């Protein structure tokens, strides 16, 4: 049985594809010996390591637009507009209280300390504190304060944390990048529209009503981006380049790519589709791996 160090990257609802990757690896006879994840990759990886991935997958598959919106606890603060408490209360109902050092599979969650400008690695302590910190998208989720640290999404500094694998010479690294370019889209502008189009909800459209697209007098065929789209897409491009650098430096044996355009950051009602996409992306990556091994 081939052993695997599994690295799960950030990317919001696209992270549901991680479930398909895990299911596919197990079906192919791989043994996952540890998991490193950030943001949604940390959530899926932590729940898998705790032994509750099937229950979590079943719950996700039952979500609709209305139930996702019902789990979104809006708040109006200077640091974010979603508390995130409802979602993690539900997850805790599924899994019970967990400590990372007691999980069945070794697990590391990555967060970012905004004050000290460095990564925070959770390899022990309360699982839900680690997951909540790791998914705190700046400006969207209210940050987590833990041990005098202001913590946000681990993807800010390291969206694909391959470097934090404690490598076993008998194991290969499988890294899952869920913000990849779509095939043949190398010259296309991939604009992130969330959360302005979040759930196509009237409230969110009004909330971001100031971020309107400018009227262009130019006759050139170029995308006209709103202020929000310019800022958000610039952030995404930075994360994408960081992930590419991690791939280039650490060269995982198997690299699974799920396109950024496959799913919006908050489209958690598309679980069935994204889980299958993860399985399909893994099969493509395995095919490439087996050509040379």
Shape: globular
Radius of gyration: 19 Å
Unreliable sequence segments: 191-212
| Sheet/helix structural class | alpha/beta
Distance between the amino and carboxyl termini:
15 Å
Helix content: 25-40%
Q: Could you state the oligomeric state of the chains shown? A: single chain
H/E series, N to C? EHEHHHHEEHEEEHHEH
How confident is the prediction overall: mean pLDDT? 86
List the helices and strands and how they pair.
Blueprint lengths: L2 E6 L8 H11 L3 E8 L1 H11 L2 H9 L3 H6 L14 H11 L11 E7 L4 E5 L4 H8 L9 E3 L2 E5 L17 E10 L21 H6 L19 H24 L3 E6 L11 H22 L1
Parallel strand pairs: 1-2, 1-7, 2-3, 7-8
Antiparallel strand pairs: 3-4, 3-6, 5-6
Helix pairs in contact: 1-9, 2-6
Characterization of this structure:
The structure is a single chain. The chain is α/β, with parallel strands linked by helices and 293 residues long. 37% of the residues lie in helices and 17% in strands. It contains 9 helices and 8 strands. It has helices spanning 17-27, 40-50, 53-61, 65-70, 85-95, 127-134, 202-207, 227-250, 271-292, and strands at 3-8, 31-38, 107-113, 118-122, 144-146, 149-153, 171-180, 254-259. Strands 1, 2, 3, 4, 5, 6, 7 and 8 form an 8-stranded mixed sheet that branches. A hairpin with a 4-residue loop joins strand 3 (107-113) and strand 4 (118-122). Helix 1 packs across helix 9 (271-292). The chain is globular and about 50 Å long. It starts with a strand and ends with a helix. 42% of the residues are buried.
């Amino acid at each position: 049985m081939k052993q695997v160090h599994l690295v799960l990257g950030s990317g919001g609802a696209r992270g549901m594809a991680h479930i398909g990757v895990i299911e596919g690896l197990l079906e192919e006879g791989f043994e996952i010996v540890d998991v490193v994840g950030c943001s949604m990759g940390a959530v899926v990886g932590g729940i898998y390591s705790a032994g509750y991935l099937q229950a979590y997958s079943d719950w996700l598959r039952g979500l609709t637009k209305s139930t996702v919106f019902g789990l979104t606890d809006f708040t109006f603060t200077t640091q974010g507009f979603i508390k995130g408490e409802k979602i993690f209360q539900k997850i805790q109902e599924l899994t019970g209280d967990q400590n990372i050092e007691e999980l069945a599979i070794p697990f590391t969650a990555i967060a970012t300390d905004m004050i000290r400008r460095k990564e925070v690695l959770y390899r022990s302590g309360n699982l839900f504190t680690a997951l909540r910190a790791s998914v705190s998208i700046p400006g969207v989720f209210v940050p987590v304060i833990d041990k005098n640290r202001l913590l946000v999404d681990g993807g800010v500094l390291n969206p694909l944390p391959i470097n934090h694998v404690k490598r076993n010479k008998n194991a290969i690294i499988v890294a899952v990048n869920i913000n990849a370019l779509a095939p043949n889209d190398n010259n296309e502008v991939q604009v992130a529209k969330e959360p302005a189009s979040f759930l196509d909800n009237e409230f969110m459209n009004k909330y971001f009503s100031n971020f309107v697209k400018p009227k262009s007098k130019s006759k050139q065929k170029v995308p006209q981006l709103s202020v929000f789209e310019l800022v958000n897409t610039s952030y995404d491009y930075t994360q994408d380049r960081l992930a590419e650098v991690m791939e280039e430096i650490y060269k995982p044996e198997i690299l699974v790519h799920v396109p950024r355009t496959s799913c919006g950051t908050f489209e958690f009602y598309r679980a069935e589709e994204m889980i299958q996409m993860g399985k399909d992306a893994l099969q493509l990556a395995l095919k490439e791996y087996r050509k040379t091994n």
